[in-house]
Amino acid sequence: MEPKPEQSPHHAYPDHWEADVVLRDGGTARIRPITTDDAERLVSFYEQVSDESKYYRFFAPYPRLSDRDVHRFTHHDYVDRVGLAVTIGGEFIGTVRYDRIDDRGRPASAPADEAEVAFLVQDAHQGRGVASALLEHIAAVARERGIRRFAAEVLPANNKMIKVFRDAGYTQRRSFEDGSVHLTLDLEPTEESLAVQRGREQRAEARSVQRLLAPGSVAVIGAGRTPGGVGRTVLRNLLAAGYTGRAYAVNRAFDEGLATLDGVPAHRSLGEIDEQVDLAVIAVPAHQVPEAVADCGEHGVQGLVVVSAGYAERGADGRELQRELVRQARSYGMRIIGPNAFGIINTAENVRLNASLAPESPARGRIGLFTQSGAIGIALLSGLHRRGAGLSSFISAGNRADVSGNDFLQYSFEDPDTDVALLYLESLGNPRKFTRLARRTAAVKPVVVVKGARHSGTNPPGHAVPVSRIPDATVSALMRQAGVIRVDTVTEMVDAGILLAGQPLPSGPRVAILGNSESLGLLTYDACLAEGLRPRPPIDLTTAASPQDFRDALAEALADATCDAVIVTAIPWVGEDGEAETGDGQVLAAALHTAVAGGSAKPVAVVHVEIGGLAEALAAASSTAAPRQRPTTARTAPPEASTDRTASTDREGATGRTTDTDRTTATDRTASTDREVPTDRTTDTDRTTDTDRTTASAPAAPPPPAAPAAPEATPPAPEDRPRPGRIPAYPAAERAVRALAEAVKYAQWRRQAAVPGKVPELLDETIDEAGAAALIQAHLAAAPDPRGRQLGHDEARELLGRYGIDVRPTLPAPDPDAAVAAAARLGYPVALKTTAPHLRHRADLGGVRLDLTDEDALRRAYGDLTDLLGKPAELLPVVQAMAPRGVDTVVRASIDAAAGAVLSFGLAGAPSELLGDTAHRLVPVTDRDAAELIRSIRAAPVLFGWRGAAPVDTAALEELLLRLSRLVDDHPEVVSVALEPVVVAPQGLTALGAAVRLAPPPARNDLGPRRLPSY
Question: Cα–Cα 20 to 30 A to 84, which of 349, 401, 586, 719?
Answer without folding.
Answer: 401
